[in-house]
Amino acid sequence: MPDITATATAPTPALPVHVTLHNTPMGIWQSFQAARNNLLDIIPGVAVRQPMISGKTGVRWHMVMDPGAIRRMLLERLGDYPKSVATKNLLRPAIGESLFVAEGAHWRWQRQAAAPVFSHRNVANLGPIMTRAAEAAAARIGAAGPRAVNMLDEMVTTTFDVISDVTLSGGGAFDRGAVHRAIDAYIDAAARVSLLDVLGFPDWVPRPGRVFTGSALREMKAVADRAIDARARTGHDGVPDLLDLLLAGEDPETKRRMNTPELRDNLLTFIVAGHETTALALAWSLYLCAFDQSVQDRARAEAQAVLRGRAAGAGDVARLPLVRAVVDEALRLYPPAGLVSRTAQAADTLCGREIRPGDTVMIPIYALHRNRLLWDDPDAFRPDRWLTGKPERYAYLPFGDGPRICIGASFAIQEAVIVLATLLSRFRFTRVAGRDPKPVMILTLRPEGGVWLEAEKV
Question: Are residues 134 and 423 in contact, defined by beta-carbon separation less than 8 angstroms?
């Protein structure tokens, strides 16, 4: 059996790509410009050295990197820290009052309706869908030959294949190209922070960029409406998919069911979130493996020893600890949601500081995952850190935590390990000179310019 514990035999570059956080205070206009171009640029450098920082840029704000204070926000006093007005302003035009945006009782019953598809047993049963998608990805990459391939695009295709099967049993009525055109158009034109958000204007004041993106939103919603209409007309045989479960779901107290707009908004939420974040985790994982060939060699040896030429399945995930550690480390270095924002509803104290109703309280997950008080050598790619222990609970939040932890977290991890193990067992990935990605966050932390790698069959 190949040795999967071998240490590096050659030096590796100092650090993978990262954002250099600023060390000088920014005014309102600078903050607005930074947030429009890359939300990570609003995070001060001190955020990786302190448990909490505060300031005022139009509105009072706080950034929290202390696990105890984060636990208070996400678990102990969840109701006092709902998603921020700015976050809802960004998302509501696209996904309405769906599970991701809703609060309180409206959120709880939608969560109950969707939960069955993401149960541990059902996620394991979805393994064959992920295996087929991994096989298809390997075939496409192999057919591309020795030339450079944008692995971000490949992973988006792969994860969309999976989520379309899970949500729509194959997604024949769902046009992947139309969905992505609409998403990209919305992000480019509307899903950027408005100066009115920075200044703390109320949410009823129109944000110009979001007023003029009606065509992108109409296209995206029309695609979902067509899928719902097709299901209503033709029905569906076989194992219930997410759309079936949403159609059947009801509030256990009022027996209320989702109406068509609610079905559409939740369907879009799961389709977008259910493949975008996993695609990003995989793209960044492949970049990091290409960055550190010694880690890639060890992960490949592990995958080959377990798989012996076949594609990975759900039953293999527990036998692939190093591949899983690569995914965990990629999610630490490049969390898909690099910054989340809440609006305080009640007076509170965090890290000894006063929180007032209306304050914006942010968890800069990108900085939390690189905080010197919580992590050793935090900017380095070191997947072995996950093989020797787990971090403090609220120091690592790629999927959030508390009652509102991402409903699809176990689904995403299983999918990422299956796809990554399959690809590493069959290819050696190397970087393309001068084409390293840049971490940029608008809604999610994407590798700007793509992840261009050469793939050599092994």
Answer: yes
Nearest to 284 by CA among 451, 40, 38: 451
- Work out whether strand 59-64 and strand 360-363 pair parallel, antiparallel, or are unpaired: parallel
pTM (predicted TM-score): 0.88
Angle, vertex CA 311, rays to CA 306 and CA 317, nearest 5: 55
Q: What is the CA radius of gyration of the chain?
A: 22
Catalytic residue among 277, 278, 360, 444: 277
Which residue is listed with tokens 């193990």? Answer: 421
Q: How much of the chain, in percent, has pLDDT values that exceed 90?
A: 52
Is 360 one of the annotated active-site residues of the chain?
Answer: no
Query: Hey, what are 288's tokens?
Result: 């990091």
Instruction: Give the separation between CA 450 and CA 91, rounded to whole angstroms.
Output: 24
Beta-carbon contacts of 254 under 8 Å, excluding residues fewer than 6 positions away, are 109
pLDDT in tens, 78-100: 999 998 877 777 777 778 888 88
What the chain holds in terms of domains, given with CATH numbers, is: 28-90+122-168+273-457 (1.10.630.10)
* pLDDT (average), residues 223-241: 76
Catalytic residue among 57, 406, 411, 427: 406
